[in-house]
Amino acid sequence: LWVAPLFIMVSRTSRSTIPRFAFETSLIVFLVTVAVLAGTTTWMSPFKTTGVSSDTVAVPSLGGLRLAPGTARQDAALEDAVAPYVERGATPVLTLDQLAGVTYLIGGVPMGSTWTDAASPRRTAGILALACRNGDVDRARTPVLILDRPMDPAVRGALRGCGASYPSDFRPLPVPDGPEGLRVFVPADPGP
Q: How do residues 116-133 score in pLDDT, each as one tens digit?
């Protein structure tokens, strides 16, 4: 934003054409260089994932998004493991921390926010409680939980407010060859 006013101010001054042309050319070269570097970095070495050249396997459940082969295999293992417990577009799924994409990968319905933070469990619990109070969570279905750390007491309380008690209403689901560090919990009583 600072570049536009600077460009306008310099271009409106009554200086000779050569310094103004030199400034404008330098500014354009600077802007193009920054855009190319930022764009290349984002494509080739994005934050916490692989670059576009490594992402060769299309994942149908994510609309054809391409992932690295190892990540795609792990995600497929997770999808296969939870498939008997998730009705796509209907089963509530609670994920903690930076697991937003997992909810969509398995076809679940987010319980509250899909992006949570370990440093603010009260915020996570508040959003979950609000979603349950507003009817955004189907209380008739016991959710699937996908965690990468122990569940905070505040989030456990909010989950109870949604009609599910952790850990008594759940059982761990092994996910051989799934994403490292994830623990999956499915309803202890699968129901009808």
A: 888 888 999 999 999 999
Is the preceding omega at residue 143 within 30 degrees of 0, hence cis? no
The answer to whether 66 and 50 are in contact (CB under 8 A) is no
pTM of the model: 0.74
Residue matched to tokens 């440093």: 119
Quote the CA–CA distance of 109 and 180 in Å, as a whole number: 23
CA atoms of 3 and 126, how far apart (whole Å): 41
Q: 76-104 burial string, b = 16+ CB within 10 Å, else e?
A: bebbebbeebbeeeebbbbbbeebebbbb
> Are 51 and 44 contacting, i.e. CB atoms less than 8 angstroms apart?
yes
Helices (H) and strands (E) in the chain, counts: 6, 7
Helix (H) or strand (E) holding 94: strand 92-95
DSSP 31: H
Comparing CA positions, the residue from 78, 79, 93, 80 lying closest to residue 143 is: 93
Which residues, at least 6 apart from 127, have a Cβ–Cβ distance to it below 8 Å?
112, 113, 116
